[in-house]
Amino acid sequence: MNKQGLDVLMKKVADGDNEAFARLYDEVKKGVFAFAYSYLRCAADAEDVTEEVFFAVKRKAYLYRPGTDARAWIFQIAKNLSLDELRRRKRRAEPLEEAGAPAVPPRLPALDLLTKCLDETEREIVLLHAVWGYKHREIAQMKGMPLGTVTWKYNAALEKLRKEWEES
Length: 168
What we know:
Mean pLDDT: 83
Oligomer: single chain
Order of helices and strands: HHHHHHHH
Strand content: under 5%
Helix content: over 70%
Low-confidence stretches: 96-105
Largest sheet: none
Distance between the termini: 35 Å
Radius of gyration: 17 Å
């Protein structure tokens, strides 16, 4: 769905339209999950954060400014909530076994590859382009980086992923 379509959905969500909220959820849930997973590296935690993101979207849709980028707005919520979860983990500082979670959390190999060999900026650029569908120019504006830097980082990240994939 294009930016204008998401913009219309966000306005309807802000007006309390649950059908529009369901459509918005279907449209962006995979990208939100992938982004959260790239930070958290645990499918269960990424699912929890994804749910939190959509609760926040529903509660705060009235804050969204029509005409801006709904995906970027949701992406920022996902980033903030993922970082919050990482901080909570650090404060708890308890092993997964003690927290009642399985000793080995569920993994998603393709997303694990992103977190294993890419830094945060490279990961965000790849996810924004490959999962969320942003053009490099849009990512450059969003991240406040030159277009050439975004393109270079994206291509370098793909090369890192290719090499890592071949070695595994």
